[in-house]
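Working notes for the structural subgroup meeting. M.R. asked for a predicted model of this chain before we commit to crystallization trials. I am recording the input and output together here so anyone reviewing the notebook later can reproduce the run.

Input as submitted:
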Amino acid sequence: MGRVGVLGRRRWTVVVAVVMALVAVGPLTLAAPRAGATAPRSVPGVVGVSDNFWLVTPSGGVEPYGVPSYGSPALLNRPIVAAVTDHSLNGYWLVASDGGVFSYGSAHFYGSTGDIALNQPIVGMTQTPDDRGYWLVAADGGVFSFGDAGFYGSTGNIHLNQPIVGMAPGPGGDGYWLVARDGGVFAFGSAGYYGSTGNLVLSQPIVAIAALTSGHGYWMVAADGGVFAFGDARFYGSGAGTSWEPVRKLVPTSNDNGYWIVQQNGTAQAYGGAAGQSLAPQALLFQPVTPGDQAVLFAFLQLGKPYIWGGNGPVGYDCSGLALASWEHGAGIGFARVSDDQYHTAGSQITMNELEAGDLVFWGTNPADWTTVYHTAIYVGGGRIVEATGDVVQLNTLDQWGTGQVMPFARRP
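Returned structure, recorded in token form:
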């Protein structure tokens, strides 16, 4: 059933939030997708791992991966729709759909629209270069400025073909871009217009846009990792046509010679000059899309509950009991109860380089013999797992015990 590990007691804050889309836009450049350039971790197939990030989900919890947790809301009127780190990376803002703003760590509160009747819900946030102000943007392109953030215009009175999904600051913070789901771009203040995908048929909607340091171009990224480059921004590759978890943002390198495409579960693929560099901590939206995502969110809610041999919840779990409960209650899918039977029969067998959120990973004393499997965990992404081990249900790395007894296949229920 479960494995009694040697890990110490850990208490984790349950997650909930959303990632804001960054925005930006020049002449359109398209190219064929290429494979990610980052080196794999020690577990085969787990590539492009972002080692430090906050995973945020709509209910306001914050799950830290290799970074401190500075807090999360105890009570929400509306779901979280954006999570933004400050430039010092020692704090973050969480933003709800009503424009309620929650600030933690070194991030300061400058105001909100929580008491204002909005025509459309808030969908994104971006801060000024000095972190002394921020803008909130609504689905209709209404812009609300706080602190030292100036107001330069909005699309609040314009009929849009598709809703706005995010914004990005212009150079110096004296302007901004708004971007819509279809890649339509609206530039205000010092932010120049360089083009859009508004007239293209996209396979997946645009989710984020990021500007060059100079402000003379930008990239847009779609939910499937497709990348569109405008102005002076160069195309270094994309994930279009892959079966990734939904993409949340594109993060350029400091000198704009490459970028990372970051999925909602913390998996980051590096392109161009980003290969071999460390990605700064990010706040990421984990919004359930697949049954596996739903299973992961249920597993998060069990973090800190006691390890109980044979436990099926809700008080406590063993390893295989947690895996089964997460899929049954989170996604409505059942399978075998015990670890070795799960490895042999649960759903479909997949290779370790196909891992997605919710997939089951296993440990056994003989990788060639399914009857030797003794432990099950739920893959989250970013090289992390939720498992019942030691004293409590906890969040750990997939390679925490090395790779000698990791079974060669995973299962997707």
